[in-house]
Each structure stands twice: as C-alpha cells, then as structure tokens.
Amino acid sequence: MSPTFEDLAVGQEIGTRSIDVTRQDLVKYAGASGDFNPIHWNEAFATSVELPGVIAHGMFTMGAAVQLVSDWAGDPAAVVDYQTRFTKPVLVTDTTGTDNAGAVIDVTGVVGALDADARTARIDLTVVAGGQKVLMKSQAVVKVS
C-alpha cells in the first residue's frame, strides 16, 4: 500500500534492504547500459589501473539503492527527484562457481523532510558496502497522496 502524507513523520524509517551483487550482475548491467568498461568485469584490468579489484558501476549502485524507495512508494513514477554523490566504489569479488555474493549493498531509508504544500517526502538513504558508505547525500523526493 502506498504511503499517505499524513502518516509520515521526519525521522521515520521506511525500510532496509540488503542487495547481493555478483560479477554476473555487473555483466548483465553492462549489456543493458552499454557500459562495458573492463573495470566492471576484468580483475586484471581493474588492478592494472590501481583499483582494488572489479567495482560495480556507479549507476548500478545508485539504481539498486533507490529501488527501496520506489518499492515503498508503490509507484516508481512517484519518485520525482533522486540525487547522490559517489564516495567509495563497491568492490565485487569473484564468486565464480559459488552461490555467494561478491558484494552486499545495505540500504536504509528515512524520511528526512516533508513538504506539506507539495505533498512530498524527502527520503534520505544510507548506502553501505564493505562497512563503508558508498553513496553520500543520497536523497529521493517522493510525491505522496
């Protein structure tokens, strides 16, 4: 059920989610986005350019994080604005032949501000992978009924 403006309060948690990420996910995302930069799938290349290993696409991370908000809102079109700053890469280790995730992205959403005139809620996201915040100032504005 979609949230209503009257039921929201600043500081209210909208939910949490842990997202398992594998290198296969990154290859699928590369195909969908057209971003085939080898830092997102080739360990040797990634380390040769002084990265700690294969890293997730920034837009993959951003999109995975905001899914919490669009699911909570009940309609992706209710998300009228979304902004973030990329601060740390999401390192995705090789898990070939296992069912393990190469990385886990943890997302928590909290109502950060309410605008009664516009009937919108700003949702502040905390996005962490490997114990580090990977997105900062991650905020989505949602139109609520």
Largest sheet: 5 strands, antiparallel
Number of helices: 3
Structure class: alpha+beta
The N- to C-terminal Cα distance equals 11 Å
What is the radius of gyration?
A: 17 Å
Average pLDDT works out at 96
Helix content: 10-25%
Structural write-up:
By secondary structure, the protein is α+β, with helices and mostly antiparallel strands. The protein has helices at residues 23-33, 43-48, 58-73, and strands spanning 13-21, 79-86, 103-115, 120-129, 132-143. The protein has a five-stranded antiparallel β-sheet with strand order 1-3-4-5-2. It starts with 12 loop residues before the first strand and ends with a strand. The model has no long low-confidence stretch (mean pLDDT 96).
What topology does this entry show?
Elements (H helix, E strand, L loop, with lengths): L12 E9 L1 H11 L9 H6 L9 H16 L5 E8 L16 E13 L4 E10 L2 E12 L2
Antiparallel strand pairs: 1-3, 2-5, 3-4, 4-5
Question: Outline of this structure?
Answer:
Helix content is 23%, strand content 36%.
Keywords:
single chain, 145 residues, alpha+beta, five-stranded antiparallel sheet, 3 helices, 5 strands
